[in-house]
Write a structure and sequence with these properties.
Length: 209
């Protein structure tokens, strides 16, 4: 893979060869050397010995390769409602590792959202320390704030969506002096604790030839 600031070269016993990026730079006796750009390298998948370049998650099933594709032109936010709600008693409160004041959100998901797509990806802006996602009183996901974005895929929660039960998100803020047994990867503002739905993207599953 290409490294910033480094010109890729191959040195043999006889010469030094400059290698181009994303092209065959050396070929001899059936051996090829190709230096990939970083973007190209991140798209590389080795499926049963076959090299495939695709953006997104790739699946292999019974001889067929599938790839997830995000439809940037489809916004599914009409199927999702996020709103503040009153406090509700939920289990596993101690997993939140914070003495800060909790906030509660009601997440309503239309059960038909997955009828015409393989999956849907919800992205939230989040300023708190961490959160828990419940369906009814069942804890189904949690998140420690590592990048300010809470992202979930709905396909894995399809059975909960079809149940018709309310989804509740409980969040907590970072405290002024932090929490001794929690490492924060980003700088968090004490008492900040807001959750906002940014996007709901449609994900299709396409066959790769």
């Amino acid at each position: 893979m290409e490294i910033d600031g480094v010109s890729p070269k191959l040195k043999t016993s006889n010469e030094e060869i400059s290698l181009p990026v994303d092209q065959i730079g050396f070929e001899q006796n059936g051996v090829q050397i190709i230096v990939l750009s970083k973007d190209k390298a991140l798209q590389l998948h080795n499926i049963s010995g076959k090299i495939i370049f695709e953006k997104g998650t790739v699946y292999y099933d019974n001889g067929t390769v599938f790839c997830e594709k995000i439809d940037d032109n489809a916004d599914l936010r009409k199927y999702i409602t996020l709103s503040d709600r009153e406090k509700i008693k939920l289990p596993y409160d101690y997993y939140l590792y914070s003495y800060g004041k909790r906030k509660y959100y009601s997440l309503r998901i239309d059960s038909s959202i997955l009828d015409n797509c393989y999956d849907a990806e919800l992205t939230f802006d989040f300023t708190g320390l961490n959160l828990q996602l419940f369906c009814g009183k069942t804890l189904i996901d949690d998140y420690f704030n590592t990048n300010g974005r809470y992202v979930i895929r709905l396909r894995e929660f399809e059975e909960y969506i079809k149940s018709g039960k309310e989804f509740v998100i409980k969040t907590v803020p970072p405290t002024k002096f932090g929490v001794g047994n929690v490492y924060n990867e980003i700088n968090l503002v004490p008492k900040a604790n807001e959750l906002k739905l940014l996007s709901v993207k449609k994900i299709n599953l396409n066959t790769v030839k």
